[in-house]
Amino acid sequence: MRLLVTGGCGFIGTNFIRHVLAVRPEVSVVNFDKLTYAGNPANLTDIEGEHGGNRYSFEHGDIADAGRVRDILERHAIDAIVNFAAETHVDRSINDSTPFITTNVLGTQVLLQAALDRGIPRFVHISTDEVYGTLGPEGLFREDTPLAPNSPYSASKAGADLMVRAFHETYGLDTVTTRCSNNYGPYQFPEKLIPLMYRKATAGEPLPVYGDGGNVRDWIHVEDHCRGVLLALEKGRPGGVYNFGGASERTNLDVVRLILKLTGRSEELIRFVKDRPGHDRRYAMDFTLAARELGYAPEHSFENGLAATVDWYRANDAWLASVESGAYREFMDRWYGDRR
Question: Which PROSITE patterns is this protein grouped with (predicted)?
């Protein structure tokens, strides 16, 4: 099987490529990435060194560029598309929603049309629990929970989800949509909560916490998420939607306090700041369907997974420093320039 993985230089895409190449020796991957600020080819330099030209190759481009997508599909015998490519940061979407509509909605439509035109056997679309909106103190998101997005980011992902559904219902395209809770783990870009708080804690800087810190998220280790996506690719029901969670609900304040404990810093560094607009109060996933149909179950407890993640950042100071300084962009320019 040859997979086209979009957004493979991002956080979850990087981990998925690593997982697939490690556990499926018969699979090869074409990584198609725009290399935005959050796409870092340095995440996969060792993979290219080990598998480049054989089981791994890279293609630079934008999923919203129909000509580029057609070109790639014509040159590679693709058996399935796994679409991780997306603008994902809620705060950025509040500042400017345009890139989110372009990539998340239009880009998904371009990929779907190309998959339909080329007869690609399977299309797996990676979505988010945020399309469901927010929960009260009780209850869980199920796959049949109505979509009720509350931010420009989540609205763009909901739009993409509905486009995937439409291509299955209208054209019979074999699609599977996955929705996951908050991811954490290696290679996460440091604008997200856990790496951001780790960086500030180790630097002895104040840790900004939105509102009262009581917003609840169900945390899933990225390795558990990647196992779920592979299961959906291989076993998912055509047209199906599957939730993946970590069974690890924690308030943002609990997460920040645990990071401070793991880094040996005082809780006096916590600073409560004005809440962001439309901040959903609680997410939590019911993954009973994925467990029943795919055999999915999370393997990482949050405490152990977070400790391992902090250890990874400690052991990869150079990676984190290059991302923080923007030096990885210079690497990216050289890396891509060598391939022009």
Answer: ADH_SHORT (PS00061)
- Work out how many domains the chain is built from and give that number: 1
49 φ, ψ to 5°? -65, -35
Domain annotation covers residue 254: no
- The SS3 assignment for 203 reads helix
For range 176-200, the mean pLDDT: 93
Query: H-helix or E-strand containing 73?
Result: helix 66-75
Residues designated as active site: 129-130, 153
202 inside domain: no
Please state, rounded to an integer, the average pLDDT across all residues of the chain.
93
Q: ∠42-234-68 over CA atoms, to 5°? A: 50
Residue 320 located in a structural domain: no
Rounded Cα distance between 321 and 12, Å, is: 20
| Sequence-separated (6 or more) residues with CB below 8 Å from residue 24 | 1, 230
Structure tokens at 138: 């009780």
CB contact at 8 A, 179 and 218: no
Task: For residue 223, give the nearest of 10, 18, 5, 26 by alpha carbon.
Answer: 18
Q: Is the pLDDT of residue 69 over 70?
A: yes
At 132-155, the pLDDT tens digits run 999 999 999 999 999 999 999 999
Burial class (CB in 10 A: 0-12, 13-18, 19+), 112: buried
